[in-house]
Write a structure and sequence with these properties.
With 219 residues, this protein is mainly α. The chain is built from nine helices and no strands.
């Protein structure tokens, strides 16, 4: 869980490139790469079991999100290394910069949404921690969290439109607009809300698909 928390914090931080500049962005990105490797080592059973067992709807949904997240992370890491001017500047890379720039935009915007969806599919772990810590208040918290989560999700949808995510996800522009005068707190609250939208969608999508898994298992 510590690795997942650090990866989530790094993901949010990296989206605010305009606030920190090249050097910090690259070092945090390199740290994200290390955390990514550790995450996959700790979850090695996922790779071992990928082609084993049945694939009910819930597992299909989970696996599609996980595989797409993996591809987006690989795209970000590769393109980040190619574009690096500091951390990986020692590497003799002199070509492929234009392709790497496009790939980095795609990987960043798709990756942010996919990693947030991935987080939502494992949100029960977070709820489990809350339940263990505050068992008496948990049932009331569930209803409160749904209302708060829905409000955040709706606001996050507005952020998705406001921030022109589709423009960058479809690579309709190769230059990302950055407002260097924007308040950091506003920027990160909006991106946190958009992350909340993805968590809300995938968490409740999982609740819809989970009963289908049980039905199929009982046949």
């Amino acid at each position: 869980m510590a690795v997942d928390v650090l990866m989530t914090a790094a993901l949010l931080f990296l989206m605010g490139y305009q606030f920190w500049g090249d050097t910090v962005h690259e070092w945090v990105g390199a740290g994200m790469f290390v955390l990514f490797l550790v995450h996959h080592i700790l979850n090695g059973n996922w790779h071992k079991n990928l082609f084993r067992g049945k694939y009910p709807p819930m597992r299909i949904f989970l696996t599609v999100i996980d595989v797409l997240t993996l591809f987006s992370m690989i795209a970000q890491m590769y393109s980040g290394i190619v574009l690096s001017r500091h951390v990986f500047a020692f590497l003799p890379i002199e070509s492929g910069l234009a392709f790497a720039r496009r790939l980095h935009i795609l990987g960043s915007y798709w990756g942010f949404l996919l990693m947030s969806l991935h987080l939502g599919l494992h949100w029960n772990v977070v709820l489990g921690v809350i339940k263990r810590k505050f068992p008496a208040a948990f049932h009331g918290f569930r209803y409160l969290s749904f209302g708060a989560g829905l409000a955040v999700a709706l606001y996050g949808l507005w952020v998705f439109v406001k921030r022109d995510f589709t423009t960058y996800m479809l690579l309709q522009s190769e230059f990302v607009f950055m407002d260097y005068e924007e308040a950091k707190i506003q920027f990160y609250l909006e991106y946190l809300s958009l992350m909340g939208t993805c968590i809300f969608i995938s968490h409740y999508m999982g609740k819809i698909l989970q009963p289908l898994k049980r039905k199929e298992g009982s046949r």
